[in-house]
């Protein structure tokens, strides 16, 4: 069971770690993986059970399941307290469904934000630029400018209207990627005409598909919280971990200025 499930996840995971993949491509791959897992769930576990029995026979392991399990559930008023006996096959089926349901729920929760970002920038694709009406493009551009107001202003609404009618001239291939569009903007020197549009593409292409922040934090935890610091508070532990993780920035800090600022804040001298 695990071999077939993890094989699908492993292949997608390798693709997500590629340096050339963008968020929209990653979102499509994850959706396809969810569809694959859903099909495995809908088809049942009979095929997987048959394959597992075949593998057991090849390596000389007993494939017969004789274990029974009693399901304990909360007893309501008027019910008997006896449990419900299920066979080993039924138990295997329940566990199979439980594993797949948990995986699909976790993937949906973890990659929900990724899908939302892909939807925000979807109107910038070559296909959308060629088939989406101008008014809808303006609405999508206005929403993007509001969401990323520190980098993109409302002028992108006029830029997207201009660029929509120029995209066929500079991009003969309607299946061009976001990187192809950005290169075309640079090639035809449209960066001065459509600066916000170029910024939007650069934001989209530089957003990371996967991160390792959790693993990075745990690897630094042992170095930060030693047995001599067992009584450290949560606030100080968090700040120490940040300093350790961002050690390159920490080394560039002028501690004389930090000490002077700290001394001025903590100063108790009375001014007359």
UniProtKB/TrEMBL annotation:
This is HAT C-terminal dimerisation domain-containing protein. InterPro entries: HATC_C_dom (IPR008906), IFN-induced_PKR_regulator (IPR052958). GO terms for molecular function: protein dimerization activity. Residues 170-248 form the HAT C-terminal dimerisation domain. Pfam families: Dimer_Tnp_hAT (PF05699). Transmembrane segments: none annotated. It comes from the Eukaryota. PANTHER family: 52 KDA REPRESSOR OF THE INHIBITOR OF THE PROTEIN KINASE-LIKE PROTEIN-RELATED (PTHR46289), ZINC FINGER MYM-TYPE CONTAINING 1 (PTHR46289:SF19).
């Amino acid at each position: 069971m695990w071999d077939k499930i993890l094989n699908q996840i492993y292949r997608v995971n390798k693709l997500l770690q590629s340096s050339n993949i963008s968020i929209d491509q990653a979102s499509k791959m994850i959706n396809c993986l969810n569809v694959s897992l859903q099909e495995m769930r809908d088809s049942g576990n009979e095929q997987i059970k048959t394959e597992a029995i075949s593998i057991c026979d090849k390596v000389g392991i007993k494939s017969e399941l004789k274990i029974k399990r009693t399901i304990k559930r909360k007893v309501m008023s008027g019910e008997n307290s006896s449990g419900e006996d299920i066979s080993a096959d039924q138990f295997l089926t329940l566990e199979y469904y439980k594993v797949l349901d948990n995986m699909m729920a976790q993937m949906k929760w973890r990659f929900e934000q990724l899908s939302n970002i892909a939807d925000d920038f979807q109107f910038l694709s070559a296909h959308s630029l060629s088939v989406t009406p101008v008014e809808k493009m303006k609405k999508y551009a206005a929403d993007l400018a509001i969401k990323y107001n520190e980098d993109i202003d409302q002028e992108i609404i006029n830029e997207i209207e201009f660029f929509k009618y120029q995209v066929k001239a500079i991009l003969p291939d309607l299946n061009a990627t976001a990187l192809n569009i950005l290169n075309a903007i640079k090639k035809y020197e449209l960066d001065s005409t459509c600066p916000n549009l170029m910024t939007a593409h650069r934001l989209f292409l530089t957003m990371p598909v996967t991160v390792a922040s959790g693993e990075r934090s745990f690897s630094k935890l042992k170095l930060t919280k030693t047995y001599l610091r067992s009584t450290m508070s949560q606030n100080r532990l968090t700040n120490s971990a940040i300093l350790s993780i961002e050690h390159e920035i920490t080394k560039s800090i002028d501690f004389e200025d930090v000490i002077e600022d700290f001394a001025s804040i903590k100063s108790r001298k009375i001014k007359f």
